[in-house]
Amino acid sequence: MDIAAGNRLVDIIGPVAKSTTRPGVFGGIGGFGGLFDLAGAGYRDPILVSATDGVGTKLRIVIETGIHDTIGIDLVAMCVNDLVVAGAEALFFLDYFGTGRLEPDIAASVVTGIAEGCRHARCGLIGGETAELPGMYADGDYDLAGFAVGAVERDQMLTGETITPGDIVLGIGSNGLHSNGFSLVRLLCDEAGIRWNDPAPFDSEKRLSTHLLTPTRIYARSCLAAARAGGLKALAHITGGGLIENIPRVLPDDLGVDLEGGAWAIPPIFTWLQDIGEIDPDEMAITFNCGIGMVAVVEAAAAESVATVLHDQGEAVSIMGAVTTRDPDDQAVRIGNWAAQWTV
After folding, report:
1. Which of 88, 241, 260, 318 has a beta carbon 3.0–4.6 Å from 150's, enabling a disulfide?
2. Exposed, middle or buried: residue 166 (CB in 10 Å: 0-12, 13-18, 19+)?
3. Which parts of 7-45 are beta strand (E)?
4. In tens digits, what is the pLDDT along the chain, a chain of 344 residues?
């Protein structure tokens, strides 16, 4: 590894990482391991929750456009959004940055985005790994991975075990594609001859790259606030697998959900992709988030109050449907009036 470049990067990101300090962070970066003090964070009977993820082939568009400053937010979001599903507060984050030849300015831009995501999620950036691997990556290419640890008091975990028929399903809006479905997006754009810096076909005032690289929304603060308000039984992060495959992950085996397709607005980027790819609406619900980044299951009596808390936290909230009983062979997620939402 280019030692001088590595040292320059450490000098740049040291203050950036320090800006993410929160109660429990112990020491700084640069050691062989990151330290965190659970007692200092105020926990009495904590369960630790961990998550690791990447940003998929969204990174290919980042590299091709040279826009590196927001992909770090995506990396944090993909991890901490998985933690909050258990009711866990994100405590600390570590990143992996691998490249063939280290370019400190690019790496620093990525890590600055990671720090921004950590500040939003209120977790500390306490370490990571920068690997220079000649021959493993093409010139200008790099890869990212993230690892986050959170904690939740044992008696406050969200497990979904208390979900019953009649509970309400709330949808919390996404702000775009987030970090899933980009292999298909890249294929469709290539086949249509659309370049990343062309005006977006569905929004002539912005480049397509602006929409595609909008960073994944971080739901940590808003969902924790909803959990503390009471009545929240489960959360499902809508990532790869979309609504169809992610919601059942938090439901008891004998329950499903009936959703109403017209209950929330589908952002134009999704209807555009469905149109140019002639994608079946059911496939859209498996491949993309279709405008819903997180789903909350709440008891009926608390639905309005939980929705209000989420709204006050800046979220767009929709009542999507309700929990129902189902036979084991039935589909767990049923979306009424779904095909009609994609008719142009």
Report:
1. 88
2. exposed
3. 25-26, 35-36
4. 555 665 566 666 677 777 878 888 877 666 678 888 899 999 999 999 999 999 999 999 999 999 999 999 999 999 999 999 999 999 999 999 999 999 999 999 999 999 999 999 999 999 999 999 999 999 999 999 999 999 999 999 999 999 999 999 999 999 999 999 999 999 999 999 999 999 999 999 999 999 999 999 999 999 999 999 999 999 999 999 999 999 999 999 999 999 999 999 999 999 999 999 999 999 999 999 999 999 999 999 999 999 999 999 999 999 999 999 998 889 999 999 999 999 75
pTM listed for this prediction: 0.94
Structure tokens at 190: 């290539």
Closest CA to 115 of 125, 128, 127: 125
Residue 112, both tokens: 């600055």
CA-closest candidate to residue 80, choices 110, 108, 107, 119: 119
Measure Cα distances from 315 to 90, 173, 225 in Å. 19, 7, 12
Number of other CB atoms surrounding residue 154 within 10 Å: 10
Residue type present at position 180: N
